Amino acid sequence: MRYAPIIALAPFMVPAVQANQYFTTEQAQKALFPSATSVLATPVKLSGDQRSQIEALSDVRQRWKEQPVWRAEKDGVFQGWYIEDRVIGKHEFIRYAVALSPEGRVLGIEIMEYLETYGDQVRQADWRGQFLGRTTQSGFKLGEDIRNISGATLSCRNVTNGVKRLLALQQVALTASERGAQPK
């Protein structure tokens, strides 16, 4: 029984698992496009060539062959794109959503689900606000263009890279849809 005190302390020595869902898809859509009267699912299937183009534009690998995308409209007028994505934190996926304008500017970003024990400071409004207005032409260097958060470096880097990749995805695969055609 000499190990009993150590076993009794084990729950206090292991960090609590922090698995939080902050937004459903519908809630994130409403938060990012509050005046939209319709948000239409428009999933995008990417060819190998398109995935290569996205990587060339963003310097970030497009892992998914299909990207969940919705077209936001207000009274039939195109407002922009709502795109859901996931990136790896330290060990777990971070699920987030980005709103992009028809011109390719970030309108907003929401962290939908965060499963890591540490690093959820990426949910802070001031950190997410750094992305507002950014385009594929903007700087995305962590620690210079985008503020890093101590203790959340991997989350910061991977969310930053994810946003940069989604801007490239819009440029490669969604521009035809903005003119009313279906995505490529």
From TrEMBL:
The keyword Transmembrane does not apply. It comes from the Bacteria. Residues 89-170 form the FMN-binding domain. Pfam families: FMN_bind (PF04205). This is FMN-binding domain protein. Keywords: Electron transport, Flavoprotein, FMN, Phosphoprotein, Signal, Transport. Residues 1-19 form the signal peptide. The keyword DNA-binding does not apply. GO terms for molecular function: electron transfer activity; FMN binding. One of its GO terms (cellular component) is plasma membrane.
